[in-house]
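2 proteins. here.
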Amino acid sequence: MSLPSARIASNRDGMTLIELLTSVAICLALSVISTVAFVQVRAVLQRMQIRLEMHNSARFLYQQLSEQISAMQQDGAMWIESTQDDGTHNGQLTITFLKGKADEHDFTTASGNYFTGEQNSVYQNRCTDLTWSAWHWDQKHAILSSGTTSPPRQFHLASAWKGPHGNYGYDSTSGNQGTWMANMPQPLRSATPYPAALPAGSSQAALGGNRYGSPDYLNDISDYQDLQNHLSPVLRKVTGCTIELILNDGSVIDADVTQSRILPMDGSFVDAHATPDATGKSAYLKRPRLIRVLIDMTDKVTGISQSFSFSFQPPAMLPLTYPAGNAIP
């Protein structure tokens, strides 16, 4: 006896076990494929985002360096200093130079002391635009920092201090105590004016000489210390850095953490003349016509690295106009 057609149809409403397992396997396979595709797409987007951030950071670095180097004073001293990496990634690299507007004062002008030269007000009004600038790379922390000195630096003498021209901090007659002192950034032309200071020839030796007292007065700091206090990070993840100077005569000077060196460079006069050194080379030939900065940025999480190279042209100098053999006035 045959079953009714309705009974046969009801027996086909459900899925068999094989059909169910097949459907689950297909869904699982599609999920795996989708997950793998999502992870790959996310990794690609993450790498693109990291590289984009590196390029944006490098663009910011270029703008900052370009603005400062374009204001470089070619008649100011300059230093390139590096500390060799001893294998613990403790290398250091620094470039220090004077920047600001043109200053009509001679570089031997006193620092605004009333007993040696111009009045404080005159000197301050004309010279506060001159500042020392430094770019410093710390290999261990992978940080590139920048900073400038304070225009006028003031400090308070809270007790008696006898200077070369008397007691600046205390008047025994009136009992006046608490003199305020002011220091202007010292616009050095010679890069090594204090050969007795250590390390000899460094920016620390040169810029550390305009403090009051010896040793330093408690509340007084030098141009060098003031500059160090103003260094702040401008770029992170910098795992490599090299500075190249292309000089006027075509020679190249490079500095990195593969060697320790101190390279002081004297400034030139406005017309580019200067007393030749022992080799007969004038200062204007030793001043850089092109400054190149090479950096490597690395993201430690993903291992992505990107290299950048920037070239900057410092302000030009007037050519040497004095005929050979003639005395320079």
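next one coming up
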Amino acid sequence: MAAGDFIAFLDSEDLWKPFKLRLQLDVMQALPEIGMVWTEMEAVRPDGGTESNAYLAVMYDNYRRFSKDELFSSTVSLDELAPSSDLPLGGALVHMGSIFSAMIAGNLVHTSTVLLRPEVAGQAGGFDEQLRPTGEDFDFHLRTCRETPVALIDVATIRYMNGRDDQLTSESLQHHMAVNYLRTIAPVIDRDRHLLHWSDRQLREIQARGHTWDSMSYYYTGDYASAHRHLLQSLRQQWAWRIALYAGLTEMPAAVIGALRRTIRTLRQATVVKVPAIPEHQEGTLAT
């Protein structure tokens, strides 16, 4: 229903800094070929103290797989891009390019930092509400990045309230995130293979790790049959003896698995299952 020249988002746990929209409008006006721009983010603790001034790479581990030079085709200083801007952000960098292929390996965009053109949002389509309670943001940003070159400003324009009760900390939400990640990338790989700068082996590896993530999330919710099924699918994509061992364990009686699960959870001293890391991106290949 938005009728303006641009669309921006704001999640319930985030706060815009006063200069956010002005900065992004300066960049969008200087780069008419860019359909979306997003920014760095600042993390704030529940007590109001600053946890990090550059939280994007902490929250989205796909930034640890690629350097900025690998993600973007060009980088320019904000002073050079928008010399008429009077914002006190000297030395800030703006990175530009197409990141659709890299986004297959994981999200790079935080929703509350985004400004985009309505025509791009229309081409990408809206948020898929069937992916709720989590995962619809990644799906939307992936489709947006398919449609247009984008830009990242290395300036924190929002304050992200970290540690709130409504954030992705429960096993249930982590489970939905894992399931929806694979649900999102699988049809994209099939449909847009010609747009992806990955080898067939790399795409199998990405999907294998997605199935492994799914399996672990099902395991920790007690659905051992689904955990076993996804481990087998992971092995079909890429053989790994560790995954084969897990697959064997999931065929054990439920009571035994339950006891092992409680022991593992105690030893780990954690309840959140995180996505298995994909190896570092080096010279166009994924290290084995």
